[in-house]
Amino acid sequence: MVNTIRITVNGVEHTVAASSTLQDLLDTLRPEAEPGAPIASAVNGTHVARQARATLVLQDRDAITTFEPITGG
């Protein structure tokens, strides 16, 4: 049996494997994204640097927020 946790991403609840990292989550939510694509992320209101995403293991009830750059003119 796989242990799962519940998290929210931009206000939407998701269920993920208990061992999921922030990078695992972003890869699942954005499979078409280029590696290194610009996106900012925060967990429970604290910014998570790109380099730290692969080692930050998500916890039950974490609230993840993602931000993509706004471009245009």
Automatic annotation (TrEMBL):
The species this protein was found in: Candidimonas nitroreducens
Origin: domain of life: Bacteria
Name assigned to this protein: Thiamine biosynthesis protein ThiS
